[in-house]
Amino acid sequence: MITPNFAITQDFKFITIIIKTPYIKVSDVELYCEGPDFTFYVKPYYLRLHFPGNLVDDDRVNASYDISAGEMNIKIPKETPGEEFPDLDLLTKLLAPKSVKKISEKPLIEVVKDNYDSQENDDELEELFEKENDIQKSYKNNDFLIKELNSNVNNDVNDVNDANEDRKSKPLIQELFDEKNNGDNETNKLYKLLEEADAYNWELPQQLPNEKELLSTAKYGFNRLYSGYFMHIQETCNEIIDITDPERSTPESRRQDRINAENNKFDPDHYMADFMCAEEIRHLIKSKNVWWKGSSDLNFTEKENSIMRKLTNKQYLIENLGSIYYGLVDLLFAYSYNYRVFEGENTVESPWMIGKISPTISCLEQFESIEETMKALYRRSLAYPWYRNYELAKKCQEDVYDLLKLGKRAILKVLLELKDLFDHHDIYYIYSKILLDDYCIWCQTKASDKAIRSLAHKLHHHKVLKSDTGWHLEEYEHLALEDAQEQKTMDLK
Known about the structure:
Blueprint: E1 6-10, E2 14-20, E3 30-42, E4 45-55, E5 62-66, E6 71-77, H1 91-95, E7 109-111, H2 118-128, E8 145-146, H3 151-163, E9 173-175, H4 182-199, H5 211-214, H6 251-265, H7 268-276, H8 279-286, H9 302-310, H10 321-341, H11 350-357, H12 359-362, H13 370-383, H14 390-406, H15 408-423, H16 430-445, H17 449-460, H18 473-492
Antiparallel strand pairs: 1-2, 2-6, 3-4, 5-6, 7-8, 7-9
Domain CS: 1-89
GO molecular function, one term: unfolded protein binding
Family: Belongs to the SHQ1 family.
């Protein structure tokens, strides 16, 4: 578990706890408050605080989550309004676990009850225990504890008990943990275990994160503006990302990770099966994307206008303008593939499919040419989705060309749809923050129609050959055709 960064303030009636918990699923948050103890849990974060005063868990408790800041704001009322909670800035003190009770050792021999004649027994025992003066302390009121007796004293005590057998009364001295005494022994052992369990500190250890560990050098996203968004990628169940350690990666290592992942994922049998059983795929290839054929379809809807109103205007100092435009081609290709496969309807699989096909999203790639951009897109479309077909990838390239020809409005509509799709996903919404938000702003304010038309022309004349993928696609197709011919010949016989 990760102990999150947090801060605490107070006013006359409330304690306010601000917890830094980016990239969480808010519906999984669990809060617990009783007396001075407060517990917060949502995977992968866990926070337990012990306040110097009592809190009240009632209807006045309020919790809200700021997505943009990644902060959980929790207000809890004080049990006594006006009480000043000291040392709220001493975070280590608030994280300190409760004190652990010491388990008092039960004596091996304990006086249960005295039914003997006090004077007579005192005289007899006084002589016996003279042999252990450091153990013998007091016999006043017959209320004493004996921690240890040697074997000779034990024998003498047994002799005294035998001499008084005719007195029908309970023994003065009783062994509590005698292995021979099975009945009472089990009860006493259980009692001891319960005491230990009650005193055991069951609370998880906590430690504030080291600020040095939070620092990262990797820059990614739009214009390489972001870092720190994949700090705890192992705990977030992000199935899109293909980079082993995004926060310590370089552009070169990210590209190598992408190529290795694609090579491992590519399945020749899957490709040959889709090549031979392509009836459904042909239907997808022949379908028409009617919605972007006329300028009348490019009017923004009220939903799109609402999304644009929430975006803040930014000024960008672009480091590599070419990589921004190639990243745009990347996003439009992934969108076009999803649009064709699901025939214009987004599904629960759409964020994963778009993210997995797009190397800009899945591998945080930045391209320097249209050649390497299209090569990566073809490879991923043949390695990851359900339909892995070269002709389908070519058709998606044509769709991107059609979109680019229509200009900024058509592109912006696609970007807004992608943003809305990723915004509403519990895990993948971070891609809106590091990529899609900025693309939506940049497309409205800085994208050049002239540059987009030039890019469309360049894309239209670029051809990706099957050999460019680095896989032997033509050989696999030839093998598949030969196998089908042999099967057909055997069926005729």
